[in-house]
Amino acid sequence: RCDMEQDRMIERINALAKKAKQEGLTPEETVERDQLRKAYLAAVRANVIGQLDRVYFVDADGNEEKLKKKK
């Protein structure tokens, strides 16, 4: 997702969080909040995985070894 979409998603999540604290959410807003949170977390996870895929360790001899995924 582009940054602008993610910014709008965060703004909406924050607006729903504020409303939840002040007056409560309707069932539809609760569903929307949960969907937005899932989408946001998926985007964050994808971003972190993308960054970790570009990480290499260099040993004393200068050999590069790609970061391995945990099993």
Beta strand %: 5-15%
The strand order across the widest sheet is 1-2
Tell me the number of helical segments per DSSP (H or I, 4 or more residues long).
Answer: 2
Overall number of strands? 2
Please state the structural category: mainly alpha
Main beta sheet strand tally, sense and closure: 2 strands, antiparallel
Mean pLDDT: 91
Radius of gyration: 19 Å
- In quaternary terms, these chains amount to single chain
User: What is the terminal separation in angstroms?
Assistant: 28 Å
Q: Describe the global form.
A: elongated
Low-confidence stretches: none
Helix content: 55-70%
Secondary-structure element order, as H and E? HHEE
How would you describe the overall organization of this protein?
- With 71 residues, the protein is mainly alpha-helical.
- The chain is built from 2 helices and 2 strands; from the N terminus they run H-H-E-E.
- The chain has helices at 3-22, 27-52; strands at residues 56-58, 64-66.
- A two-stranded antiparallel ribbon has the order 1-2.
- Helix 1 (3-22) crosses helix 2.
- The longest helix has 26 residues, at 27-52.
- The protein is elongated, with a radius of gyration of 19 Å.
- The protein starts with a helix and ends in a 5-residue tail after the last strand.
- 0% of the residues are buried.
